[in-house]
Amino acid sequence: MAHARDIRVIVSDVDGVWTDGKIIYAGDRSELKNFNVRDGLGAKLAQRVGIQIVLLTSRRSPALARRARELSITELHQGATNKAVACAEILESMALSFDQALYVGDDLPDLAPMLRAGLSAAPADAAAEVYAAAFWKLKQPGGQGAFREVVERLLRERGEWDAVVQGFR
After folding, report:
1. C-alpha span between 104 and 106 (Å, rounded)
2. Which pLDDT tens digit goes with each residue over 77-114?
3. Could you read off the pLDDT of 117-138 as tens digits, one per residue?
4. pLDDT tens for residues 21-43?
5. Strands 30-32 and 24-26: what pairing?
6. CB–CB of 61/33 below 8 Å?
7. What residues have CB less than 8 Å from 11, skipping those under 6 apart?
8. Quick one: pLDDT at residue 2?
9. Greatest C-alpha distance within the chain
10. How far, in whole angstroms, is CA 1 from its chain's centroid?
11. How many CA atoms lie within 13 A of 51 on its CB side?
């Protein structure tokens, strides 16, 4: 297990972490996703202190691509069939190790990368096995500020939260 100060990247699942896990279809081609604005600010705050954000999902969604662009998240990886392999490849391409990663996930495909990451977190409504395996067991459910909770906790443990808050005064 890593210490919060060792973390350089947050790798996060999307459906069930950034969203409540629901998929809403609008006709044959469109998909709607509901994102929490506080999670978006959490991403910006992490970026502000030099922590990179990676979104890793097995699904493909134009709505997610738009949200990632809005938040200047350039590491968006959609269509991952094996998240452990994809995560390893992403970290290698960034010249980072699993020890430098905090992985946030909510369901069984997230379990393997969570177990390898330096730190891990799971929303309050994650699958029981994933929640039990998470180092940080979050109070917020997916889509309701879970990602923001991860960022706040990480920055608090790194001693950077107060300085971030001061930037808004």
Report:
1. 7
2. 999 999 999 999 999 999 999 999 999 999 999 999 99
3. 999 999 999 999 999 999 999 9
4. 998 888 887 888 899 999 999 99
5. antiparallel
6. yes
7. 54, 56, 87, 90, 91, 101, 102, 103, 104, 113, 117
8. 80
9. 48
10. 18
11. 27
For residue 46, the one-letter residue type is A
Q: Could you tell me which residues come within 8 angstroms of residue 99 by beta carbon, excluding any fewer than 6 positions away?
A: 2, 6, 118
SS (H, E, C) the chain: CCCHHHCCEEEECCCCCCCCCCCEEECCCEEECCCCHHHHHHHHHHHHCCCEEEEECCCCCHHHHHHHHHCCCCEEECCCCCHHHHHHHHHHHCCCCHHHEEEECCCHHHHHHHHHCCEEEECCCCCHHHHHHCCEECCCCCCCCHHHHHHHHHHHHCCCHHHHHHCCC
Look at residue 161 in the predicted model and tell me its pLDDT: 97
Tokens of 93: 């391409």
- Predicted TM-score (pTM) of the model is 0.96
Residue 20 tokens read as 């409540």
Q: How many residues does the chain have?
A: 169
Report the interhelical angle of 37-48 vs 146-157 (nearest 10°): 30
Task: Check residue 9 and give its pLDDT.
Answer: 98
**What is the average per-residue pLDDT within 46-68?**
96
